[in-house]
């Protein structure tokens, strides 16, 4: 076999391998705002997948092959949530295990069959931002900022008193009556206005949630 023939075979094999595997859409992705449901939060990184839809977190190994998302060893945390959230979680689990088509379109990730696609938007890379663990109370409390409003109650430790948080946590939509433990990113704000905070809080992960009965 000639050197030229051997080189041609290697080139053909490399092209076939490249054609069979779509570049991995690594990053953080989130669904749009929805008043009825919390946003979906999807993270793909180094062959690992994590998806949170408001109840439990689904996770496993993942790769993209021939335009479909292949998820192996899918597992879930085991928190009990309301029936609507649990039903949504089952649907998401079935979707991930069905090898759904996946396609990146600019800053959007399209997951699922046309007409029934999840549309997720890429989130900023906050990997270098400092991380903080906080608890969030099940109910807001009245507070005064620029105007009267309802503030989140937060604390770093269960033994600490609750503190009012004058602002929101980006990407986090708490449900009344549910207490949370979150991992957040603290992002510095360059040249903030005089009446605005110098740090943004951005949701990184919901670690725990608990239904608090009144």
Give me the CATH architecture of the largest domain, please: Beta Barrel
Integer tally of domains: 2
| CATH fold field value of the largest domain | Lipocalin
Strand proportion: 35-45%
Number of strands: 14
Estimate the helix proportion, in percent. 10-25%
Written overview of the protein:
The protein is α+β, with helices and mostly antiparallel strands. The chain folds into two domains: 21-122, Lipocalin, CATH 2.40.128.270; 131-211. Helices cover 15% and strands 43% of the residues. It has two helices and 14 strands, in the order αβββββαβββββββββ. The chain has helices at residues 3-20, 83-97, and strands at 27-31, 41-45, 48-52, 57-65, 68-76, 102-105, 108-111, 118-122, 131-136, 141-144, 148-155, 163-165, 178-188, 199-211. It has an eight-stranded antiparallel sheet, covered by helices on one side. Strands 9, 10, 11, 12, 13 and 14 form a six-stranded antiparallel sheet that branches. Strand 11 (148-155) and strand 12 (163-165) form a beta hairpin. The chain starts with a helix and ends with a strand.
């Amino acid at each position: 076999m000639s050197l030229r023939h051997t080189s041609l075979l290697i080139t053909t094999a490399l092209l076939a391998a490249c054609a069979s595997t779509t570049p991995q859409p690594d990053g953080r992705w989130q669904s749009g705002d929805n008043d009825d449901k919390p946003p979906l939060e999807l993270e793909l990184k180094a062959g690992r997948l994590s998806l949170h839809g408001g109840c439990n977190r689904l996770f496993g190994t993942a790769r993209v092959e021939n335009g479909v998302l292949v998820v192996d060893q899918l597992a879930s945390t085991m928190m009990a949530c309301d029936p609507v959230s649990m039903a949504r979680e089952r649907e998401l689990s079935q979707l991930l295990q069905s090898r759904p088509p996946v396609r990146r379109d600019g800053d959007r990730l399209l997951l699922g069959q046309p007409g029934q696609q999840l549309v997720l938007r890429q989130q900023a890379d906050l990997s270098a931002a400092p991380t903080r663990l906080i608890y969030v109370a099940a109910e807001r409390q009245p507070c005064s900022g620029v105007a009267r409003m309802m503030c989140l109650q937060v604390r770093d430790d269960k033994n600490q008193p609750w503190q009012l948080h004058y602002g929101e946590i980006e990407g986090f939509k708490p449900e009344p009556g549910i207490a949370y433990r979150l991992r957040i990113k603290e992002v510095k704000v360059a040249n903030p206005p005089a009446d605005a905070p110098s740090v943004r809080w951005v949701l990184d992960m919901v670690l725990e949630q608990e239904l608090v009965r009144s």
